[in-house]
Sequence to fold (354 residues):
Amino acid sequence: MTSSPLKLRPSKKLQMQTKAGLPTTSRAGYKHKQCRHRQEGAGRSKFGGVWKELRGGHPEVGRATWFAEAGCKQEVPGNWGDRLLTMKFLQLFGTVKPIVIGMVHVKALPGTPGSRLPVAQIIEEACHEAEIYKNAGIDGIMVENMHDIPYTFNTGPEITATMATICTAVKQACPHLPLGVQILSCANNQALAVALAAGLDFIRAEGYVFSHVADEGFVNACAGDLLRYRKAIGAEHIQIFADIKKKHSSHAVTADMSVSETAKAAEFFLADGLILTGTSTGQEADQRDLKECGQSVRIPVLIGSGVTLGNMEKYIDANGFIIGSYFKKDGHWSNSVVYDKVSSFMDKVKKLRK
Fold:
């Protein structure tokens, strides 16, 4: 007597309802979350289950409803693939365009030629500027050691340690704002370590893809090593906004590579966003570069120099502005932040978002 093979009846997936009333499955593990900086005390965003849901979409729920229930003020345009690549940005800032990041240029750090102040005073001044930005309604803040001229590739432990201390203090002063850091020059690993230690959200990375010649010397691409380091230290929640064809640099060695091809390479190498600049600090970026990148990649594109109250409309298609010089007294990066300039700028950009 032969036995018939055992037949298993496939069970239906258990359907659940989240608090937001969104359909999901036990496999997807969707968990409703608000935008990080909109929710007091919010922890690190986790995207695994959310991304599984997004890949298939939500046929039962309208797109606008989904983003509203997720605590975000604006829906990501495009298809679901576009949404996947911008979701981290959207959850951090609450909108995809155009957000404003104000620069805190900390005074010269210990061991650098321009160092004059004790660390305690450097921290106090950095926190004061951060609070000016916060009170003026800025969307985010980035801390940078721009006074450490001339820059070097040999960033010492004293720089990393001091930047970590400063960033921790800024985080305490502005606990609910998205915060980032850049450490010059090309100290991208150190910036990631500082961001992780201080609880920051993003870094600005130089030399992410392709080589170029900067005033500090020859810069090689770092994406492969940088992302492996991010993985190794458990910092994958920290976003990396990568400069392409960056300011203060010669790009003759890659003159045959267009800005769009460079942008595509950065996207392919898993950058979380791109930064376009003019030729130097405070100089306007080329509108054609913004248009070209916007048509070539799906990750966020930010303008990293030259944006002012008078020209912001030229860059309204960007996902964000990183502004230092314009917000400073007399429009020079080395001066102090002026509240009225930040406030007026934010009033105008918020109107343009509508």
The first strand starts at residue 15 and ends at 17.
